[in-house]
Each structure stands twice: as C-alpha cells, then as structure tokens.
Amino acid sequence: MTKFSEFGLDEKIVKSVERMGFEEATPIQEKTIPIGLAGKDLIGQAQTGTGKTAAFGLPMIQKIDQKNGDVQALIIAPTRELAIQVSEELYKLSYDKHVRVLAVYGGSDISRQIRSLKKKPQIVVGTPGRILDHINRRTLKLDNVQTLVLDEADEMLNMGFIDDIESILKEVPSERQTLLFSATMPDPIRRIGERFMHDPEMVRIKAKEMTALLIEQFFIKVHEKEKFDVLSRLLDVQSPELAIVFGRTKRRVDELSRALDMRGYVAEGIHGDLTQAKRMSVLRKFKEGKIDVLVATDVAARGLDISGVTHVYNYDIPQDPESYVHRIGRTGRAGKEGMAITFVQPREMGYLRTVEQTTKKRMQPLKPPTWDEAFAGQLRIATEKITEIVTEENLADYKAVASELLEKYDATDIAAAMLKMLAKEPDQTPVHITEERPLPSRYGGKGGGNGKGKGNYRGGGKGGYRDRNNSGKGRRGSNSGSRDRRPNGERSGGKGNYKKSK
Ligand code: ADP
Ligand code: MG
C-alpha cells in the first residue's frame, strides 16, 4: 500500500488529502496516479466506490496552473448527481491549492452557470448535453484543456450520450491527456479508446479484489411470498445504521418503500422515474442519516457515492454478477465493514452460483430470523439506548418525578414499561408486494443487444414490470399516517448516537 506522500504530489495536495482522512491509496489510485502524472492516456476499469475520482483528480490538480484562468481540465460524467459529486470531491482535493472547480449540468439555471463560467473555473465537470450547450453558446472554451476525463463511460453509453461525447472530444485540443473510466468495457467504449486516445495504458481492478476484504456476504433461501417478513425481521435483528435494499424493478422499489414505511421503518425509494429534485432530496436525507433504509433500483444507485452504508439487502438477486458486485460495493467502503444479504428463491440458486464464480467468494447461508429473534433484537437496542442515557446524560431534571414513580410502582415494572415504549415489536402489519417471478432458471441467452447484456443496469425493464398496479407515482410522503405508529418518533440528532430510535 502506498501513502499519498510517496507519489511526488505537491505538499498542498497531500495536505488536502490528509484533511479528507485518506490514509493509503486504493488499488486504482496506486496504479493510476503515476500514469496520470506521467501524462499518459489511460483506460481504467473498476467498480463504483474504488476511489476513481482521486485517482484521476490528484494528477489533474497537480498540473493545474493557478495563474492561468483557462479551463484546463474537463470531466464528463453521465448524470447531474455524479457531476456534482465529482466536483465536490475535486474541490476538497484541491482545497489547499485553491483551484476553481465548477459543475455544469442540465436542469439547472443556465444563466447562473454562464455567470459562474465567467469566473474562470480551471476544472469543469459536466454532463454531456450541458457541456455541448455551453460550447455552442461559446460560454465554455476548451482550447486550453490539457486533461480530459470520461467518467463512468459505459453508463454514458447506456444513456445514449456517445454522439455528444464524440462532439465534445472534437472540441478539445488533440494534444491532451485523456483518461477514461468504465465499470465494463463494451466494444463502443473500446472504440473511443482507439479513436480518441494515444496508446492508452490499461488499468483493471478486478471485482474480486474489491469485494473480498470487508464485506460479509450471506444469502437466504426464501420464497417470494415470505421475503418481506424476512426483510422486516432482519432489519429488527440487525438494526442497521444505514441500509440499502435493492429491488429489481421500479414497482418493487415503490412498493417496498411504502411497505417499510407502514411497518415503522424510516424508508424512502429512488429510481429513474422520480424527478431529479426528488432523487437529490432523498439522497441528501439518506446521507444525513434521516432515512434508515434506502430502497433503490440498480440504476438509481449506480455510481453514487453513498458512504457509511452498513447493510445491503438484495431483495431480488440481480440478473448478472456485475450488478451484484456494484450493489454490494455500496458497503464496506473506505475501510468500513459491511454486510450483504441476498434473497434467493429456490429456483434461482443457479444465479447465486454464477455470482459466486465471479466474486470468487462463497456466500454463507443464513436462516431467516424468527419473530422471537426479531423481538430480542429490538429489546437489545432499547436496552443499549437506556444504558447510554443512564451513563452519559445529565438526568437531574428528571429525577424528582422518577422518585415519585418509584414510590408508586415496582422498579422492574417501570423499567419494563420503558423497554416497551422504546422497543419496537416486530411489526406484522399486512402489506402488499406484487410478486415477481423468479429469474428464468437457465442463465444466459440474453438474446442480441449490444454490450453483452450488461445493459441491465437500467433498472426497471426486466422481470415483467408493468405500470398497472403502480398506483402511486410520486406518492411517497403521502403515507404520513403511519408515522404516528412509532412508539418513539424522535431521532437523535448526532450521527451514530443511537443506532435506531424507533
Ligand atoms: P468511484 O468514483 O470509484 O466510485 P469515488 O471517487 O467516488 O469512487 O470514492 C468513493 C469514496 O471513497 C469517496 O467518499 C472518497 O472520498 C473515498 N475515498 C477515495 N479514496 C480514498 C482513500 N484512499 N482512502 C479512503 N477513502 C477514500
Ligand atoms: Mg466515480
């Protein structure tokens, strides 16, 4: 493992990296940073959450001439969320060097962006459409770009941005360094490499190197009908600090988030049909710890940097192993431990084996928790909470009344009442989840299509998603009535203060 001080980066940059709390370079950073510094072109293949931004960002920042007000580096990213995320990371990495970073993306006021562009950003991160728009309006000049990055290139391909990208590439001086990152390498991406890059170096971080260390992987064999009760109990027993539940379709995501909400969990869903604003607000709430369970389709969660996820639940096993690797990559990041639990219908066991062949790691079987175990889990959490308050908080104001209570009632009864108030009984509220058929038992044969069937990240689609029955688009938040059912609705302010306060 390499320390950041060993790459020959400016002191100021190393200082910013330290400020961010990075101790050692990740594998992709270790390989990419020297190539980046040497000015060579590069094609990097690695899954989400491996630290690609710093991998291309640090050499890029090193090369920025602060005295020059031209745009010197351009990063193209598939979505607004990603563009914002990358720009925030670059801003932090260049904090001590004082580089100006700007994100430009659609769906946001263009005249404000034009004003920001006039302030001479040195690094611009943007989505393809908006970058082209600014090029055409002559509000973005790229004649002095030295470094060009295509981030999540396969995703841009899936979203149909390939022509836009080619148009942008033609606007950037050919005497530049180009770095391309992609989780998969379908042919059109390779061709970009051949056509627009000079003798690129290939860096590939294999999925198995990434998933191995910190993520405990389990599977539970469960029939479709029982999945939801098993999920509720798991949440009760494990009491995850931050959890993501992955569902195969948008309908699933809607139904699951509503059902979880009905059973008293603080859950929200994201998928591609939600508005930009809604997705952003859900993500923000999740990052701030205001939502305990995020329910998502693959595509909605892809590439987003959501850190601190402790548990990933695959409500449906993904169709292809790469999706699985992406999903569980949401947890166990940056040195933190994580747990992934995959539900498998008996007929889908073949898929599980295929996933295991890819990750080269066996998943451990897990038994669905019983009601008693779920209840015990909730009691344990309530007890931890009481212990924490007793030992750490100033209770002076409560003691007088507490003594009165103790005179009237037995101490054990009072403690029991407190537990009853705090502990959430495993909730059996009936919910409706539309059944999905198991995946076809023969794996493969995806029939035609480009990208070797990897396009499944698009979420939705497969698995017979129809709009019927999806009574509630944009209906989240209207089910507020269920919230009162929580014995204790308040959440502690500080992160990780109490694990869960329901
Ligand atoms: P990717 O683009 O590969 O999905 P990111 O660049 O978004 O990954 O990084 C994922 C997360 O890991 C970010 O929160 C980032 O700050 C953090 N990170 C990156 N490099 C390191 C490192 N060397 N040590 C610890 N955390 C890191
Ligand atoms: Mg990234």
TrEMBL record:
Bias (Basic and acidic residues) ranges: 428-439, 482-493
Q: Which Pfam families match?
A: DEAD, DeaD_dimer, Helicase_C
Q: Does the keyword Glycoprotein apply?
A: no
State the compartments where it is located.
Cytoplasm
User: Residue numbers of motif Q motif?
Assistant: 2-30
* Top-level EC class: hydrolase
Among InterPro entries, the record links this protein to: DEAD/DEAH_box_helicase_dom, DEAD/DEAH_RhlB, DEAD_box_RNA_helicases, DeaD_dimer, DEAD_helicase_CshA, Helicase_ATP-bd, Helicase_C-like, P-loop_NTPase
What the record says about family reads: Belongs to the DEAD box helicase family. CshA subfamily.
In Swiss-Prot or TrEMBL terms, this protein is called DEAD-box ATP-dependent RNA helicase CshA
What is the species listed in this Swiss-Prot or TrEMBL entry? Listeria fleischmannii 1991
Species lineage:
Bacteria, Bacillati, Bacillota, Bacilli, Bacillales
